[in-house]
Amino acid sequence: MKRVLRHLEDKIQYAEDYASWRQACLEHDQLSGAEEWKARDRSSDYDYQLIRTRIQHIERTRERGDVHKLVFHMHEGLHGSLGNISNPNLYLRSKASTKHLIERYLTTVCDALNYICDTEFDDFTLADKLNFFNKTGRAFGQTALMLSGGAALGLFHIGVCKSLWEEGLLPKVISGSSAGAIIAGVLGTHSDAELAEKLQPESLYLEAFKYVGWRGVLKGTPVLDGDYLEKCLDENIPDMTFREAYEHTGREINIPVSPYDRHQHGRLLNHKTSPNVLIRKAVLASCAIPGIYPPVSLWAKNMEGQKVPYIPGRKFVDGSISDDLPIRRLSRLYGINHSIVSQTNPHVVPFMSRSQAIKQGGVLPITRTWIRRNIAMNASFGLDLLHDRVESNDLGLVVDKIRSVLMQKYDGDINIIPPRKPLNVLRVLANPSVEDVREYIRNGERTTWPRMDMIRNTTMISRTFRDCMHRLNKQGTERIKAGGQPPTSANNVVTLDQANK
After folding, report:
1. What is the pLDDT, as a whole number, of residue 213?
2. I want to staple 464 with a disulfide (CB 3.0 to 4.6 A). Which of 21, 78, 88, 110 is the partner?
3. 84 contacts: CB under 8 Å, gap ≥ 6
4. What whole-number distance in Å separates Cα of residue 130 and Cα of residue 107?
5. In Å, how far are 79, 137, 195 from 130, measured between CA atoms?
6. Which region among 29-33, 84-88, 174-178, 425-429 has the lowest average model confidence (pLDDT)?
7. Which residue numbers are catalytic?
8. Closest Cα partner for 259 from 278, 232, 286?
9. Neighbours of 102 (CB within 10 A)
10. Could you give phi then psi for residue 297, rounded to 5 degrees?
11. What digits encode the pLDDT tens for the residues 187-223?
12. Beta bridge partners of 293
């Protein structure tokens, strides 16, 4: 038995693709006893009795064909982690998947949602369906993928995104700061058909770093050539605005930028807040590390389609200074309440845990957390005092960056972190070869695979809401094209624009 398990562990370690990796994991679970654990409902890590009851209510109501009561159960009972089913500890006892009861619950909910969407009812119209899916879907929330900074180390994000995209799990809402902004820009401007080729190492132009020289720095010149980076972006990102990119791909990319002026606030650029801004310039600004790259002026297209300055006179720099992972702003704009974070910042990764386990209590962990938070708060207070007394804009930005590093939250609900390699710090500002890119992508893929089942399960309901809304919107569009009226009900009118918001 042990020899077979070791053989399977070798297959898991050296699997060439996700399908082979997962099959080896399932075989390992069967032999190790993990499959028996998955088949037992009972566990202290979640409320299995509540989940059983919810399944029974939904199944019985659906069998009776009572759509109004079913809608009531869906509207009142849906929650992102009902009974704590998203607890990371539930994914530690097995190599693949989790409790069968949790998977049964998710399947039951999604089958019920599809039943409501696709079944014709005399007393539950298309307008009623649109209202239900729009309101309940908004209340349930959705997932965002957030790509951190990290300069050349950010190429790891490509492997993360590639593995999610191939499994149909790439979220529609994506944010990227600094290096992550480049990958977000590529994802947001290429359709699914185009991504199949673009995500290959040979298809990426990655000559982004050209040193100006340290002598120039003493004269106030940035270390790296901004024009050289801009050429790299021109090769990888089509010349599109945020609105044009959204219309082309349906992906809602978000690029945070920080103001070069110390007395302004950071901005989150996307097709809602800045639809006419050119993505290339937004990405360039988000990569402009103060002192390393020069600050950037944003550009946009005007009503006639001409390129004009956006907020003339203002320049912007590295988006991670103020908000590397802009979860609060994403929550306001898109109803995001769940996040997948790919984190490659070299000053953050060494201090992040690779385990998804919820930390246990105890005197030592509590004391350590208390000390760390107090040090960060005191240091931030000192930096606030220094910031108010610094006259130099560049030095003020450095103070802001240090303060941000101390106080920002750099993790999410599901974290994907590259393997620790101390020498990687020497590759941060180095142009990678094709082989280097292939290694980064491979590391990103292999690090994502163990998180895939958790991502699939925690996003299953929100993805079903999205798919149902797409089908219902299509029905409404076809009705209008056929000469009918927009979907209406006795109490309200639902337009397709409202349903898409």
Report:
1. 65
2. 110
3. 45, 46, 47
4. 22
5. 20, 10, 31
6. 425-429
7. 178, 318
8. 286
9. 23
10. -90, 135
11. 999 999 999 999 999 998 888 888 876 655 555 567 8
12. 290
